[in-house]
Design a protein that fits this description.
single chain; alpha+beta; 8 helices; elongated
């Protein structure tokens, strides 16, 4: 567990022995979940953020008609519910569900907002890391808005793949979503997404092998 936490943004700049001090001071505890089990439920409030230390989970958002959208995937080392834990009273707008057998370390970060339970140097580093994480999370939300802004399905596919391939500087990309999850992330029907991907393959623009996409078209794409 410590090996995973030491590599997370939350504990960046903190050595292993000090991580133990932080975990004890902030009442950290680990819990395991089966595939499909709810980790945190929309509408609940929390004083704890979670860090996945084994497995993976997905963030889901549902409406009153029962429609569910995938907002993202939480892999090993990634945290969730951090801004809500800092506030402590804001209801979660999403549900986190284990995508496979998953273990999560929960940390009471709200204590950082109200008390000084840690040595000054550790408190300062954690607060700096919290601010950076929240800022990056906001950037991710802006990015998803840009991916779903195009009116056409093809436009959304290209927007998503363009950003991801540009970030990795590769025309071949393994995405963290299956076909249903990608459709939900882009806000389109799965059948419509599959049809459009099939058209793009026939037109020699894109090659798809499960969740691996390769851009082979002649139109501009990040190198």
């Amino acid at each position: 567990m410590l090996d995973v936490l030491a590599k997370t943004p939350l504990f960046r700049g903190i050595v292993r022995d000090d991580i133990r001090v932080v975990l004890k001071s902030l009442c950290a505890h680990e819990k395991s979940y089966r595939k499909g089990e709810i980790i945190v439920q929309a509408g609940a409030t929390t004083r704890e953020c979670g860090v996945v230390v084994r497995g993976a989970a997905v963030i889901e958002h549902g409406d009153i008609w029962g429609n569910v959208s995938i907002m993202g995937v939480i892999e090993v080392g990634v945290n969730f519910a951090l801004p809500y834990a800092c506030l402590g009273s804001e209801p979660l707008p999403f549900t986190v569900v284990a995508r496979e057998a998953t273990s999560v370390v929960f940390i009471d970060v709200s204590a950082l907002m109200t008390t000084r339970q840690l040595p000054c140097h550790l408190h300062s580093v954690l607060m700096r890391n919290l601010l950076e994480i929240c800022a990056r999370r906001n950037l991710h939300l802006v990015q998803r808005t840009m991916h779903t802004a195009p009116k056409t399905i093809r436009g959304r596919i290209v927007a998503y793949l363009s950003d991801a391939m540009s970030a990795q500087k590769s025309r071949t990309l393994e995405i963290p979503y299956n076909r249903q999850q990608l459709a939900q992330y882009l806000g389109v029907e799965r059948s419509a997404l599959s049809n459009e991907l099939s058209k793009m393959q026939k037109e020699g623009i894109l090659r798809c092998e499960k969740n691996v996409f390769t851009w082979i078209g002649t139109s501009p794409m990040p190198d």
